Amino acid sequence: MPPGDQSDAPAFDPSLLIDVAADFLFDGPPTLTHPQMAAEAGVSLDEAKALWRYLGFPEVPEDRIAFTHADVEALRITTRLTDLGVVDPERIPQFVRSLGRSFSRLADWQTRLLLSSLSTDDETGPPLEVLAEVIPMVEQVQSLIWRRHLLSTASRMALSSSTSGPSSMSIIGFVDIVGYTSRTRQLSARALGEMVEWFERVVTELVVAHGGQVIKTIGDEVLFQLDDPIDAGHLALELVERADSDERFPKVRVGAAQGEVLARLGDVFGPTVNIASRLTSIARPGRVLIDDELAAALRGLDDEFRVRRIRRTSVKGYEHLEPWSIKRPRD
């Protein structure tokens, strides 16, 4: 490689990673075609193909040997979940798509991380023994984290009594990086990546510290959810104030709304989410805008917040949106 070459190509053959991962994850090479896999799992070929597409994988020719007995077992488990009534048959596509999207992003990040961190200056790459040890370690940590989140989510739902139905009262917020588009033109790819990584890290830490949950990241924006209005107010203010004390954290704006929220497959939906998004889009840099429901919960707490009504505005879907601003109390 010429001096100064910043190519993203890995310094060793990535096929090594494929071979080791396949041996660990599937206990051997594929032995089944799509029709054979469906027959062993006891499902129709059309159903097996549909689930494969829902996972985000391309069509596989019927005569190609591309599947293992682990794939057969996954089909059987999916069928068993519907038989037990855990997953509604009509929601199987959404259930599988959600898993496919989540693990696709996770696998993409993990693979890039492995390829970059395992590369060596002399381009010889790590020995196979290292790869064989690393992949099981990643899988083990991943499983532990999932179990911890499962316990945390169950505990949170039990405490908030939110298991009674798919929807519940909640506070939804968005935090958005100001001037992100212009930053993409000014910063190098590495600097931009470091800024976004720090932004997501700090936001996640603050949300969790206030008893909330990060639902997802959307480019330069993070969607979060909380149950307590006071915690939501303090979190919003801490987010917009962070840039004043942390030069690595970009200037942001926050919008939040309180109301009924439909939780489904790890995401949230409904007018409350839409209103929070619209409020974020019209908030000035370094400011917090909230809806009238959340404002009603925070008004009167003069020792903690200054809540002020601002001019009604028209945004997509809402002709007379009534925003409120919140700030710290005056000294």
Describe the structure.
- The chain has helices spanning 15-26, 34-41, 45-54, 69-83, 92-117, 128-160, 180-186, 189-209, 229-245, 271-282, 292-298, and strands at 167-177, 213-218, 221-226, 252-264, 267-269, 288-290, 306-309, 313-315, 318-321, 324-327.
- By secondary structure, the chain is an alpha+beta fold.
- The chain folds into two domains: 15-160, no CATH class; 164-327, Alpha-Beta Plaits (2-Layer Sandwich).
- A hairpin with a 2-residue loop joins strand 2 and strand 3.
- The longest helix is centred in the middle third of the chain and has 33 residues, at 128-160.
- The model is unreliable at 1-7 (pLDDT under 50).
In short:
This protein is α+β, with helices and mostly antiparallel strands and 331 residues long. The chain is 51% helix and 17% strand.
Q: How many strands, what sense, and barrel or not for the largest sheet?
A: 8 strands, mixed
Number of strands: 10
Model regions low in confidence, pLDDT < 50 over at least 5 residues: 1-7
Under the CATH scheme, the architecture of the largest domain is: 2-Layer Sandwich
Keywords:
single chain, 331 residues, alpha+beta, Alpha-Beta Plaits, 8-stranded mixed sheet, two-stranded antiparallel ribbon, 11 helices, globular
Give the topology:
Layout: H1 15-26, H2 34-41, H3 45-54, H4 69-83, H5 92-117, H6 128-160, E1 167-177, H7 180-186, H8 189-209, E2 213-218, E3 221-226, H9 229-245, E4 252-264, E5 267-269, H10 271-282, E6 288-290, H11 292-298, E7 306-309, E8 313-315, E9 318-321, E10 324-327
Parallel strand pairs: 4-6
Antiparallel strand pairs: 1-3, 1-4, 2-3, 4-5, 6-10, 7-10, 8-9
